Amino acid sequence: MDNNSSDIDIVVLTKGVPDFREGKVSFDEHGHLERGKTPTVMNPNDRFAMKAALQTKVRSGGKITVMSMGPPGYKEILQEAMNIYADELYLLSDREMAAADTWATAITICSAVEKLDPTPDIVFAGFKTADGETGHTGPQTSWALEWPIITHVVSLDVDVNERKIRAMRLVQGDIKEIETVEVDLPCFVIPDPEFEAEYPRASHRLRLQNLTEETQIRSDSYEETLTMWDHKELNLDPDFIGLDGSPTIVGRVDPIPKAPSDREAIIIDIESKSGLEEMLGIMAPFVGGR
To answer: C-alpha distances in angstroms, 50 versus 16, 35, 130, 146, 204?
Structure first.
């Protein structure tokens, strides 16, 4: 279904996760991640949520709001999101929100989503985060909002007039078994890593190009579209958010070792035929070649 209505309001949830490639992950004495002291990047699975949201905007019109919860340094994560596409950015941040588990995070995000005006029609979230791996935050936020949720989505259409989403999803994450489901808006959508954005019409592809160019131009001045909310603006009791509102107890955290810098490397001259043959000879055993 392709509509030109601008009635669809979309929220994408994103999170900063430790850049495990650097190996410089900092924990405090209680085993809590010190995000302010750890190199951070956008959670990889959130990119699929961003792409699903952008497809929806291109094909059905509307507005995309990207929201994150974390320390002030997460502004850079929102700038990274702007490079894919965003109309507005929101960062939920203060000390009372720190060290939240998935439940306390979901409560905070739920309050922020409800505070938006107008209320969103669709909230997209990543499948799971690279640091926690629980996949809880999206479903828990959906439960708090009392919205239907579709998980493992690999393809979707939005019918603006009927206010419905029709989606194809993997059954229990099995790539070999797919089912089609339909839910009313508002709803929560969790795209699967197998999600592929689809732009079947030339008009879609042209609009995608224009939106991509537009958002990249605005990326340098992303703070002009950024709103920050603390727990007071969200009318949240500190006893129910952050560490105090988190029922999860961290038993143990194992440090992530930094990759050795003295790994063996073979330099290949790509202009050399013998060099390329050498490279193929090295790679062949790993890909079943001869």
So the answer is: 14, 23, 16, 23, 16
**Residue 7 main-chain phi, psi, to 5 deg:** -90, -5
Measuring CA to CA, which residue among 81, 100, 98 is closest to residue 89? Answer: 81
How would you label 153-170 residue by residue, b for 16+ Cβ within 10 Å and e otherwise? bbbbbbebeeebbbbbbb
Q: Is residue 121 a contact partner of residue 186, using CB atoms and an 8 Å limit?
A: yes
Tens digit of pLDDT for each residue in 23-74? 566 666 666 666 667 778 899 999 999 999 999 999 999 999 999 999 998 9
**Half-sphere exposure of 206 toward its Cβ, with a 13 Å CA cutoff?**
3
How far apart (Å, rounded) are the C-alpha atoms in residues 106 and 111? 9
Q: Are 15 and 68 in contact (CB under 8 A)?
A: yes
Q: What is the pLDDT of residues 143-173, one digit of tens each?
A: 999 999 999 999 999 999 999 999 999 997 6
Kindly list the distances between the CA atom of residue 234 and the CA atoms of 107, 109, 110, 122, in Å, as whole numbers in the listed order.
11, 9, 10, 20
Structure tokens at 258: 């930094």
Longest dimension (CA), the chain: 68
Which amino acid is present at 123? V
